[in-house]
Specification:
By secondary structure, the protein is of the alpha+beta class. It has one domain. It has five helices and twelve strands. The strands form two sheets. The protein has an eight-stranded antiparallel sheet. Strands 3-2-1-8 form a four-stranded mixed sheet, with no helix packed on it. A hairpin with a 6-residue loop joins strand 11 and strand 12. The longest helix has 14 residues. The protein is globular.
């Protein structure tokens, strides 16, 4: 009976286009400490491709579209996270944690692991600023981000952008991206700065 039910579930999932849940496997318990910069107690600067796949399992996709700037990216769309490596693949460079399903990242579901602090897609800019006040977060509106990007790149920005909150740590930095209208946090980018 259980085999029949599993077969029916697999057929339904395949029909609605989410069969990657079955093929990609379910990640084990995942704990990402944003303040200490660890994934399941492993420092982010020590995360190799092998270690990430040991923790998160088979990715739903591997991306290598920015080979000059970034190494490969392991995309875990159903789990709500992507992990990008240095060009030489020596260690993790960036982790993107998706907190909501949004038009800006429609292929990613909200993060299903555990975060510390326990930030969710229900948090807004003011809560991030309050909860992380001890770490001196820096807030910039979407307009400020757009102007800074244009000044740095000398290219006129036409795309939408986020309000951003940046928190600097010794081994990494955090950027919380929030919708400029609702102020809900949509994504967290973790940039590994220390190898």
């Amino acid at each position: 009976m259980k085999l029949v039910i599993n077969a029916i579930v697999a057929a339904v999932l395949s029909i609605v286009g989410i069969s990657s849940w079955l093929s990609a496997g379910e990640p084990k318990s995942v704990f990402l400490d944003l303040i200490d910069g660890t994934l399941n107690k492993t420092p982010l600067s020590q995360l190799s491709i092998d270690r990430v796949t040991d923790i998160l399992g088979r990715p739903s996709a591997v991306d290598n579209k920015f080979p000059a700037a970034l190494g490969p990216g392991l995309l875990y769309r159903d789990f709500g996270v992507s992990v990008w490596f240095r060009v030489d693949q020596s260690c993790c460079q960036t982790i993107a944690i998706f907190l909501s399903r949004s038009p800006k990242a429609p292929d990613f579901f909200p993060f299903r692991g555990n975060l510390s602090p326990a930030i969710t897609g229900d948090w807004k800019v003011n809560r991030i600023l309050d909860e992380l006040a001890a770490f001196r977060p820096v807030y910039r509106s979407a307009d400020e981000v757009r102007r800074e990007t244009e000044a740095r790149t000398k290219i006129k920005s036409t795309g939408s952008t986020f309000d951003e909150i940046e928190v600097l740590r010794e081994s990494h930095s955090l950027t919380f991206s929030a919708d400029p209208i609702t102020k809900f946090v949509e994504r967290i980018n973790v940039y590994v700065t220390k190898k």
